[in-house]
Write a structure and sequence with these properties.
Blueprint lengths: L1 H11 L20 E7 L13 E4 L5 E8 L8 H7 L11 E4 L5 H7 L4 E10 L3 E11 L2 E15 L7 E11 L6 E20 L4 E21 L2 E17 L8 E8 L2 E10 L1 H4 L8 E4 L6 E17 L4 E15 L6 E9 L2 E9 L1
Parallel strand pairs: 2-9
Antiparallel strand pairs: 1-3, 1-13, 4-5, 5-6, 6-7, 7-8, 8-9, 9-10, 10-11, 11-12, 12-13, 14-15, 15-16, 15-17, 17-18
Length: 358
Amino acid sequence: MKVQLIFLLILITPVVFGQITIDQNDILQSGDSVGVSVASDLNINYSTTGQNMNWDFSGLTESDQYFEKAQSISSGGIIINVQFGPFAPSEYRASYFQSFDGLPIDDLTSFLPVQISSVNRMIKVESNQFTIPGYSLDVDGQIVGFKSDSIEKAYSFPLNFGDSYSSSGYTDINFAPIYDARVIMNRQRQSEVDGFGQLTTPFETYEVIRVKHSIYEMDSLYIEFGPIQQWIPIERTTNEYEWWAKDKKRPVLKVETETVFGNESPTRITYLNNETTHLVQYQFNSELYPNPTTGEVSITTKEDLQRIVVYSTDGREVYHKEVSGTTASLNLAHLSPGMYRIQLISSKGQSFNPIVIK
């Protein structure tokens, strides 16, 4: 009888998961890259949260893949190094930069006589916080940087269940003297660590905490063209639901939503792709020339290459080629002018190199 009671207690006792803590060491560092899958299942239940949760997203369907990379400030060019490099004021001294899709690029390119191909945000990782001191834009193949007047805080470390914090960021992106146009970014952020437990993706099961970011964006686009001088308001409310595990460098699952007329709908779902993260960072002794190029690129290394992949600055694969040996040639003339990243892959790992197409 005693044995039966013990067995019954085991059956009815809920599983209790450990509450992990996320700190600055669990975030991407300069030079890191992780493989990410994009899911097509925009109808998943992303809102349920709480203590000792068991989130099962093992049925997600992959529709795309890309690399999320922390690019060194030194690779951003002279302007970025001056504004955000080691000799910049301490609050603007960034750790790395990443691609960012939060600016209204379509609106900008439809009004301006210049081509904006990518936006990056500067990241500063400290022991107690993760901040965004500014942004850069690729304008007609030239990188231009903008410091934020108010610096947005994305994370307050360490992250523990029950924590909450708020922040705001204000950035004036002024295109003068290139063109009489400006973009004002005013973001209000409220973040809360609102759950913990176990999460399963198609690749792995993790012990996680969940962070919800609610972001109210009050962006304005100013256009001056001849007699036309107009501010165009671009306001929206977005949410980011993130599940973080130890030592994974980015959320193992992230759901981004947008609220339109009071209705919140998912716009993007991404999760770690462990098949691609197995590639370690390896600094190849390599040469890419010419750089900038009009399309033809020659590559020489001291390692036997297996594959070469080219990514746009937002992480999308735009070209790949299976190769062998220490030399290779690429024809990238079909790509639009701008900055790209070339990934070299060998049996020892992977290395990324910037290249500009004119």
